[in-house]
Amino acid sequence: MMFIHPAVVLDLSANGVGIIHTLARKGIDVYAFDTEGPYSKGKSRLARCAVCPCPLTQEEELLSFLIQTSESLDHKPVLYAGADDYVVFISKYRRELSSYYLFLYPDHSTIMDLLDKKRTYELAVQHHVPTAKTFFIEDEQQLDEAIAQLEFPCILKPVFGHEFRKHVNKKAIHIENADMLKEVYPAYRAFGELIIQEIIPGDNQCFYKIATFFDENMRLLALFTLQKNHQFPVQFGTGAHIVSRRIPELVEEGLPLLKALNLKGIGMIEYKKDPRDGRYKLIEINPRFWLTHSLTGASGVDFAYFYYLHLTGHHPAPSLQQTDGVQWIYLVRYFLTFLEKRKNGGMSVKDFLDGFRGKKVFALLALDDPMPFIRSTLSHLKNAWKKNRRSE
Question: Which of 68, 165, 304, 387 has the CA that lies 20 to 30 A from 186?
Answer without folding.
Answer: 387
